[in-house]
Amino acid sequence: MMAQYLEIKAQYRDALLFYRMGDFYELFFDDAVAAAAALDIALTRRGKHQGDDIPMCGVPVHSAEGYLLTLIRRGFRVAIAEQMENPAEARKRGSKSVVARDVVRLVTPGTLTEESLLDARRHNYLAAYTEVREAGALAWCDMSTGELRVMACDRARLGPELARLMPRELLVPEPLETDLRPLSEELGAALTASARASFDSQSAEGRLCTLYGVGTLEGFGSFSRAELGALGGLVAYLDLTQRGNLPLLRPPVREAAAQVMLIDAATRRNLELTAALAGGREGSLLAAIDTTVTAAGARLLERRLSSPSCVLGEIHARQAAVGLLHQEASLRAELRRALRQVPDMDRALSRLALERGGPRDLAAIRDGLAQAGQIAGLLDPQELPEHLQQATRALGGHDPLLEALDAALVADPPLLARDGGFIAPGHDADLDEARRLRDEGRSVIAGMQADYARQTGITALKIKHNNVLGYFIETTATHAEKMLAPPLSETFIHRQTTANQLRFTTVELSEMETRILNAGAHALELEKQLFDGLRRAVLEAAGIVSACARALAEIDLAAGFAELAASGDWCAPRVDDSRAFDIQAGRHPVVEAALRRAGDSFVANDCTLSPADTDGAAIRLLTGPNMAGKSTFLRQNALIAVLAQAGAFVPAQQAHIGLVSQVFSRVGASDDLARGRSTFMVEMVETAAILNQADARALVILDEIGRGTATWDGLSIAWAVLEHLHDINRCRALFATHYHEMTGLAARLRGVENATVAVREWEGEVIFLHEVRTGAADRSYGVQVARLAGLPEAAVTRAREILTALESGEREGARNPVALIDELPLFAARPAPAPQSPAPKADPVAERLAAVHPDDLSPRDALALLYELKALSRPPSDP
């Protein structure tokens, strides 16, 4: 056996080998050591190899999926070796013959299909990248749904595209492994290098034609050699990992780079599109706006949010669908009620194609098609926009399959086909007969037990069953002499003695056992045959089933966007081919949702970035203190552009957005210690990417450029970046800064306008109004913010002294402000003042309350007093 294990393991050196032994998958040698540590299970020993103990661990077959998920998340690949025959068949070759085993599947992060291993609301992409001469191409698929796409993609665009897709695994030819490993690690994708021959475009074309059963790929589109190579490498890897049992892949769809908004990895991270900065889905834009009610709809939402369209026709069609369902509240509610009952047909179909599906997957197809029929009945194609018309048409055409599944399956089938009981009574006459015999046999056993009890006079006599003896008669040891003595010994044949019982059989019982066992096995075999027939029927109709699943996802997403717009008072944006950007009363969807949960309201703000010149820039230079809401304002406008081109309504009173080709964001401070990059270096790398890539249709948001270095260096860099955006990139941009010196650029550069986030001082406190207004901030309020953050009062007082000296020196033209500070007494030289309570301020509210006697107040007087106290506590109104 160990020789067989080592032979199989030699073929899969880079994977853990799950070696099937009965009801367990066993691991040996280094695999066992690694798996035991990763899974936190016991490490034992089994035999010796070359004089050393063989480490071993194992996991039960019935619960292997949970262990697989843990191993995959920890970066392992797992080869699953199954028994290809039963022990009885092996013994026919000789008493010492080993059961034949072979790897049936290689489990990797990008090839998961099991429901328990996947997030139902997220795609699980496997991507492949290759280059042919100077041209590159990226192909990707979700094996669990059958989606397959490809696009031309050079090395410069690869990072943003992978950030859009977030594949779990990336395939590359071996020569590119070293170059692309840092990128895959940055994105958290497992990198798999394959032989260069797997990406050969000529053999790839033949491989794809064989997969789809066609003589040419021209019917699917025109593909470059690099695109064919990427597709071929991906299909070759699927063939390898699935051991020839390829998934049900839809024909490849070719994407053009210009069709989707370019958003690089740093921008996605800063905007928290699908994941929060802290990690996880909670706190992201995706989590805040996900009102879909089906798994397929949720995956479509993530795809649209990650890939906003740049095709005006698509955007307008999606908005029209949302607009209709936004107006028709009752129709929207009915659709969402029906959609909640739709199972995940795409993934059920994929499991059935890979022969990993069960009766519940057939039931998912049946229930999904039935719900599709109900939903189609709610929609009148004549009154729908084209986007919904297309979806509605795809909901029909599956009546024969639905009728077959409905007639064959019970309402709630078991998970596994081997459990039986999933075919409805009356569907198959042979199965009904086998079941009758099986079930009547059980009642006969009960009757035989009663007969034997009467015959022997032993009321405690029982007929039981186990996998070793089959059916047997069991009685206590106290009745042993009676059962072993004539005349009972002539009927009851002794089989086994245990500590407290004796076990017997009879000729009659053995014959009945044979009948019962044959009937049960025959019934199960018949059910498996019927399951295979239903599975084939589903796969033959895979095209219309898949189209129906996609149509239901489209309807779910449109209804979800409409529900979001109705509940959040969002508006339909006007998206056109101009370069306008005019948002009235815009809000940040994530922050607004958080404030709403806390019972607070969001302060909406306008944003106008429409260029004064046809081909000129439009930049708002935003000043104001920290904590005033600058970053929120920057991010909300970028998110509004993303939502608009994803086909959704937007959180604003009104929005006019000229098509945005790229969104770039440089907001927040972080370092990259793994690559030896400081916070400032990361900031400069991201800023360089923006200046080198942003085109005239880009939307750029920048926050505090240059703050990570010396003041004059930082100001110089920020100044140069702003001029470059204005003169070279000529894009639309929001530029937040603390360098007030830059506000003078608004007078020099035609496309620059100053804006500030308003604050108000009242009784020494800073009140943040969160209002963006035209003009420049007169000061930064940094010392006040530091006080709010909890700096000791002594430090705050000292900061005020230094600030006063510096400002005085600047007004007087001092060349060396530090010399002015030297004239102040040193902070450490002064004895620390004893803590003193600040002088109490006159509090009109407290004084008024002191004069009130509650027992003397009528309800009307109490209400009047409340209004009076509220007026006394209100700060002076902002001018």
Structural class: alpha/beta
- Report the radius of gyration as a whole number of Å: 36 Å
As for the CATH topology of the largest domain, it is Rossmann fold
User: What percentage of amino acids are in beta strands?
Assistant: 15-25%
Gross morphology: elongated
In the CATH hierarchy, what is the architecture of the largest domain at level 2?
A: 3-Layer(aba) Sandwich
Number of strands: 27
Strand order of the largest sheet: 13-23-24-25-21-26-27
Main beta-sheet annotation:
7 strands, mixed
Arithmetic mean of pLDDT: 88
List low-confidence stretches: 828-832
**Any idea how many domains?**
7
Give the helix level as a range of percent: 40-55%
Q: Number of helical runs?
A: 31
Protein architecture, described:
This is DNA mismatch repair protein MutS. This protein is involved in the repair of mismatches in DNA. It is possible that it carries out the mismatch recognition step. This protein has a weak ATPase activity. Pfam families: MutS_I, MutS_II, MutS_III, MutS_IV, MutS_V. Keywords: ATP-binding, DNA damage, DNA repair, DNA-binding, Nucleotide-binding. One of its GO terms (biological process) is mismatch repair. The protein has 31 helices and 27 strands. With about 900 residues, the protein is α/β, with parallel strands linked by helices. It has seven domains: about 1-105, DNA repair protein MutS, domain I (MutS, DNA mismatch repair protein, domain I); about 115-260, MutS, connector domain (Nucleotidyltransferase, domain 5), CATH 3.30.420.110; about 290-400 and about 540-565, MutS, DNA mismatch repair protein, Chain A, domain 3, CATH 1.10.1420; about 430-530, Orthogonal Bundle (MutS, DNA mismatch repair protein, Chain A, domain 3); about 570-780, 3-Layer(aba) Sandwich (Rossmann fold), CATH 3.40.50; about 790-820; about 845-875, no CATH class. The strands form five sheets. The protein has a seven-stranded mixed beta sheet, with helices on both faces. A six-stranded mixed beta sheet has the order 3-4-2-1-5-6, with helices on both faces. A six-stranded mixed beta sheet has the order 11-10-7-8-9-12, sandwiched between helices. Helix 6 (about 175-185) links the parallel strand 10 (about 170-175) and strand 11. Helix 15 (about 360-380) crosses helix 17 (about 400-410) and helix 18 (about 430-455) packs antiparallel against helix 20 (about 505-540). The protein is elongated and about 120 Å long. The chain starts with a helix and ends in a 6-residue tail after the last helix. The model is unreliable at about 830 (pLDDT under 50).
